[in-house]
Amino acid sequence: MAIFADPIRANVLWLDIESLLVHLGAEISEGSGSRLRVALNGVRAVFHRPHPAKETDKGALRSVRAFLIHAGVQP
């Protein structure tokens, strides 16, 4: 799973992350602007979709990784 790869990758598409969250059963709702509210296994987070780029930067990928681990998702 690219999200858990070390070193952290800089070419993970945000759409792939959203697809993974949906596959895992996350509740996703749109926030204002590029915000995306996500809830999974009782854990909540707000992420920002990258724009205009389609790839997620390393900092955002670290945040997604931490969220998934906190929600009980392991690689």
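Above is the first protein from milestone M3; the second protein from the same milestone is given next.
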Amino acid sequence: MNHRIYLDFNASIPIATEAASAMRPFLAEHYGNPSSLLCAGAPAKDAVEKARGQVAGLLGCDPTGLVFTSGGSESNNYAINRSK
């Protein structure tokens, strides 16, 4: 057996084919900031809200209670600051 074993998924991780396909339009065509008031961000904002609803459906929770962050540090800071 001669196959690679990669143990540093903290630094990077392969992207699932399904996730890459879902993201492709937002990397090439609809790359506006979803938090922007400009119309370029509208498709991205719609996609974020659709994803929020899908995740909420899987978790059985209210979509307004979900917060997406850019990573672990931001998530930890958000959780710590919300508990104060």
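Note on the second protein: The radius of gyration is 16 Å.
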